[in-house]
Amino acid sequence: MRRAVSEKLHVDPRSVEGYNLGEHGNSQFTAWSTVNILGEPMVKLAKDRNIDLEELNHESVVGGHRVFHGNKYTNYGVATAAVRLANTIISDAHTQMVVSNYREEYGTYLSYPAIVGRDGILEQVQLHLTDEELEKLQISANYIKQKYAESRA
Where do the Lactate/malate dehydrogenase C-terminal domain residues begin and end (predicted)? Predict the structure, then answer.
């Protein structure tokens, strides 16, 4: 998501803050209400600049597919995330990160922000999502539960 947004707006990816939520794959989505670029809400920037957020979301989802099909693996992205997570745990940093954590309200594990430290997930973050984003999160949760049930059959 950061790459897609930064390329569209011609800014450094580190200037893009926000979250992709749900399952890591086809049902993941960008929660645009959480995305800010240099302090400006992405929803406002998209409206002002006539940017199609669904198209950007699609770019975020297919980005991993593109890397995989180009390289036949995604180990650099996975390794970078693993190192960041390990450093957070080792240093007991109490850092907010998007990690897979059990969400009681959805009855499954989802990619969702949490505070992470030496003891694992210390606190679940509560985002203020739009109704549309909550619906997408429920769809993603249902997809995860369906795939899990299929794997157990």
Answer: 2-149
